Structures are given as structure tokens and as C-alpha cells.
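Fold these two proteins, one after the other.
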Amino acid sequence: MSAPSHKPSVAPPAARERVPRRGPQGTAALGKTMDVLDLVGLAAHPPSFTDLARASGLPRATLHRLLAALIEHHMVDVSAASGRYVPGIHLLELARRTWEQMDLRRAAAEAIAELGRRSGETVHLARLSDDGVVYIDKVECDYPLRLHSSIGKRGPVHCTAVGKAMAAWLPEAEQRALVARLDLQRHTEHTLVTPQALLDALARIREAGVAYDREEHVLGMHCVAAPVFDFRGRCVGGISVTAPLSRVDAARLEVCAQWVRDAAADTARRLGGEPQPAPG
């Protein structure tokens, strides 16, 4: 019987299907760095420096420099015992954040579609990120008069219903630190522009279970939002309905508030979490 052939654990970049990287001049180093990261992350077994040099075809000095940068940013780690390279902890953090966001969008898809049908108004799904609100999904209303927004757009925390809904359920120390960092810019005469006013509002929101933006961000527009909780009991997002006062009065917005709460509760259940109890 012949001896089994040895198969290298690291495939060179050319052996894998890749989308050619095209970009402005100066991106070649980034491309090489990503190739090295792929070689480490996709290897069947942790590669050695020699494995990476052979698979990448890079000069040893260049490879040393790229690996040092990846290690510095915790994208790659090296075993002190074996000298072999493994994916770094920051990759896990990035994967977790990406997975949570994808999970949230998937879990909320049916709920926000139904909320859009029931309310007839624009629905947003959002997360907190870097002291701001990021809209990760939406259901657009059919009316020409509406708040113009887009997925991926950032918004302020202090004067949006969905931002306040999420901030209200942060742990107290995190909440105070966030409020202290925020630029409490005045957008309208109704905007909360002092830290204490915002903290007081967040406490009321936590008691009520929903948050309102009553022309605090854009004159003529109001909004109601509720938080979404995951299986750990953490607030991982928020769902809101936004409408112009000329079409939706305060009483109708109160009706929407219960639908928003229902959508948030349905999304939480799909994430394995519990809905926020109704205010007592």
C-alpha cells in the first residue's frame, strides 16, 4: 500500500475563488494583508510562518510586517508554544457583532412587515452603534409625505424615539456614560438638550415601555418606538413607526404604540428573548 500523499493545510490565494480586488492606487498592501488573514483564518490547521510564506509567495520581510500588523490589531494571534498562527480574538468580536445584526434583521423581518401593514407608515429597525442610531432595516410607507431615511444611515440618540428606547434599557453606568458623551444638539424647539433632561426622559421611557419623539428631531414628524431584547435579556435593537402629524394625530400614534410593542415582542421571541412587560 502506498503512503498517503501529504496535502498542505494552507491553500495559496490563487487556489481559492476570490473576487478580484480593484481599488484606488495604494490598496495593494491592504489586499496582501487580507490575503494573509484569509490564509490564517481558512487554514485547516494552524499554519507556521514557513507555510504562510510558501502559500502567499510574499517576501519574508513583507510577511513579517503584515503579520505584525494583524497581531497588533488582534486579528491574528501566534502560539507561544508552537509558533503557529491562529485567528485573533477581534475576528470573533467582529463575527459576533455581524451575526447578531443579521440575526436581528432576520428575526424582525415578519414583525416589521406586519407593523408596516397595520400602521400604513414608515417602520424602522435600528441598533445602537458608536454613540448613535444605525438603521439596519425599514419598511417604507406608500405616501409621498414621509421621513426620508435609508438603511445604514446614522441618527442621533437623544431626539429619536428608537434611540431613546434603546438607551433607556442600557445598564445605568453605561447609560450615564453614553449621555455624558452625546452631543445634545438642538434640532427643534422640542429637543432635549441637557444631560439631566435626557436621563429623566429615559427613566420615564423605561417605566412606560415605549419611547416617543414628539417633533424632537424633525418638525412636523413624530414617532413611537419599543426596545427588542435577546435571550440574554439585553436590549439589542429597537423598532419604530414614524409619521407626519398632518396624517397621524396623537391618538392614532397611541394606537401605533401598541402595534410597535407587539412587533418588538414578536422579534424578541424569535431571538429567544422575553418581551418587555406592559407598563403596570
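Now the second one:
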Amino acid sequence: MAAAVKELNIIMSGVGGQGVVLMSEVLGTAAVRAGLKVRGSEVLGMAQRGGSVFSNIRLGSDVEAPMTSEGKCDILIALEPSEGLRNIQYLHKNSSVVLNIRQIIPATVSMGKSTYPALAEIKKRLLAVTPDVITVDAVELAEKAGNRQATNVVMMGTLFGSGKMPISQELIKEVIKERVPAKAVEANLKAFDLGYQACCKL
């Protein structure tokens, strides 16, 4: 059983195709099995791939509403840097940010119709709100694990490596095994471990 938790607000953001929804489902399932009260919601982008995806999970005995209010997010997981910046209004001075540094440049930028902020600028703006910004090249670690699509699982490993989750590694790994295709289980578990180790080395 997890330790008593009154309120822990987690926001996951990325673009379509990065596995934000799966990550949300895995975390939510593990939280329920750990005996935590869970509330949540998801906002999907206009396009299946490339559109913004936002998922919200709230854990704890004091949680009632499904949505986290602005300035109340405890952990922001950004699978794409600019999507982390898009949700900066939810952060407070003690928030933690887990940021994948691999950028996905929108087509509108390639066509010259919009601009994309530099990674250094994104990090600077996040750090202006909270000093706890953990950066990881989740794509590189997923490829090292043998499955580029496991980028989201690398991010979960990094999150758990931060020591901020009231759920055991063993439990989250059990749910990962159940939710990914059998042929991808080994690579996903390795991806989780690589993300975990990357955070522990910081």
C-alpha cells in the first residue's frame, strides 16, 4: 500500500503519437492498485498525430475534482519541450518538471507560419517558476532500450527515479507488463530502468 497522500497533482503533456494517454492509464491503474484515490481527465489534440495531448491525474484523499487548477500542479511531465512550456501556468515554485529535450517541430514552423522557442529558452522560462527541472533525452534512452516508441516509459522511469511518486517500482512495472504488447515488454521494462537510472545520476 502507498503512504497516505492528501493531494498530488500530475500533468502529462506531449503531442499525438507519443503515448501520453497510455502513460496516464498506466499511472492511474497503478495508483488505484496502491490504494490511492484517483481522479483525472484528458484533452486530446485536433490531430491524432502532432496535436497537443494533455492528461491530468490527481491522487489523494482530499481530491474531488478531476482537473488541476492553474498554479496547483505538483509534477509536470513533458514528452515534448514546447508542450511543457504550453502548460507552465499550472506550475508553482515547488513543482517538479520532467522534461524530454527532444523537440518535435510542427509543420507550421517548417512552413514558416509560426516559430518554435529554443530549448534553452524553454528551460529558462520553466526554471523561472521552479528550480526543479529534470531534463532527459528520452528518445535516446528508448532507442538504447530497443524500442523508440517506449519514450513515454522512459519518462515514467525518470519520474519514479525522482522519488516523488507514492507508488512502488514493482507495482508500476506490473502494470506496464500488462498494458504493452507481449513482444515489447522487455524493451519497455529496460526503458523504464534507463529512465530511472538517468534521474538517479543527476
